[in-house]
Amino acid sequence: MVPESNVSVNSICYKRPSSTYVNNSKKYLIPERTFERQYASLYASRLRITTDLLLCQIRRKWGPAANFKRLCDVEGDETAVVVGTIFKHMELHPSILKEISEEQNLIPQPVTNVFTTEDDYLILEDNLQRVVICGNIDPHAHVTGVNIALKGHTDESGKFFVDDFCYPYAHDPDPLPSLTEDKYVLLVSGLTVGNASAAFPLQMLIDLIKGDLGEEKDLQKFSRLVRVIIAGNSINHDEAELFKGRFLARKTRPATIDNVKELDNFISQIVETVDVDLMPGEFDPSNHLLPQQPLHPCMFPKSAAFSTFHVVTNPYDSTIDGVKFFGSSGQNIKDISSFSKLRSPTDVLEKTLDWCHMIPTAPDTLNCYPYFDEDPFIISKYPNVYFSGNASKMEYRFNDTKKVLMVAIPQFKDTFSALMLNLRTLEVEPIVVCDEVC
């Protein structure tokens, strides 16, 4: 239970409501790290766990009499249902061999953030066999690592011709709690503290949260704020500084140290009145492999003095007043967009819900910890709110089928905006602290 706090402005006292909070991210903590294992065990665990979820969906879609077989047992042109992991063959797929050849000036590689071409095709593989698949399935809407059930037959060329397909089955989210009053959670990402152009908007955001800025309706709304979630990329990263630190002989003071101090100053002003969850992001001083571990509290001496300051993992999983929040700092969404033709952030979020996996492209194109006998990124039960930080644009929409609110949080440094989410109604309101020329 979070204690109540007051927001006082111009002799008017607004009482901030209390809220309940449960951190569900324990599965993303890695107490003992070992890198002696291969990633094959992660793919095997993923397929083993999701096969049970796929069998539920197979029975629901094609009936209990569906001819379910392993790939190696499919004979001739019989119609069968097979289960496996998708591998997407891409000519532009990054490869260490291509990188080496580029370093040796043998074959220059094109610089691109999108690796799809019209010649991409899919391969299905299980523990024993792999086969090229074709037919009623779009390669550009899938990525490597997705577990899927296919209904079809083997054609004369030896390819598996797909008539229909289905994804794993996940349980519906818990019903929303019956809250009697409005309570809000603020979602923000890409603060890039240390960027001079964002200094003034960041101060305005502080003043809004603390109740030092805005009209009476704004003060009333922000007084109902019970939590702030900062979804990664909180400090400024300068590519030029990274280049200098790597290649110049003279040692200079890294800008990261000063930026972390500024971030501590920023958060310490907010945690005086409201709880803050700080997630690491792609460019933050945290481990590179997913799941990213919480930033160490010693980096934030001013903020860590408050019980309302919380360092959390990326991915993020918590329950706030009975509403389950699940999300990431955006690396997974960015990576899936690069290896498919899915461009809208909420479209990618929806696909990961369909696939019942948050980061299917890990470890193929997104680095992750080599788990053994488990895969914590599998979505076996849908959350109420599913978010992604550092998106290319602000988007949010409700999936009526899965009953999930999908939220793409834009980078604050580009839009000077955040989102306020009402826990009682799941309504989202964009918060623009200033325009681009402020």
Task: Write the topology of this structure.
Elements: E1 5-9, E2 12-16, E3 21-23, H1 40-62, E4 80-89, H2 96-103, E5 121-125, E6 130-135, E7 147-154, E8 160-166, E9 184-188, H3 199-210, H4 216-223, E10 225-231, H5 239-247, H6 255-270, E11 275-279, E12 309-311, E13 316-320, E14 323-328, H7 331-338, H8 345-355, E15 385-391, E16 395-399, E17 404-410, H9 412-415, E18 417-422, E19 428-432
Parallel strand pairs: 6-8, 9-10, 10-11, 11-12, 14-15, 15-17
Antiparallel strand pairs: 1-2, 3-13, 4-5, 4-7, 5-6, 7-8, 9-18, 13-14, 16-17, 18-19
> What is the helix tally?
9
Radius of gyration: 24 Å
β-strand percent reads 25-35%
Give, in spatial order, the strands making up the sheet with the most strands. 3-13-14-15-17-16
Q: What's the N-to-C terminus distance?
A: 38 Å
Structural class: alpha/beta
Q: Low-confidence parts, pLDDT < 50 over ≥5 residues?
A: 240-252
Element-by-element helix/strand order: EEEHEHEEEEEHHEHHEEEEHHEEEHEE
The coarse silhouette is elongated
Family: Belongs to the DNA polymerase delta/II small subunit family.
GO cellular component, one term: delta DNA polymerase complex
Keywords: DNA replication, Nucleus
InterPro entries: DNA_pol_a/d/e_bsu (IPR007185), DNA_pol_D_N (IPR040663), DNA_pol_delta/II_ssu (IPR024826), PolD2_C (IPR041863)
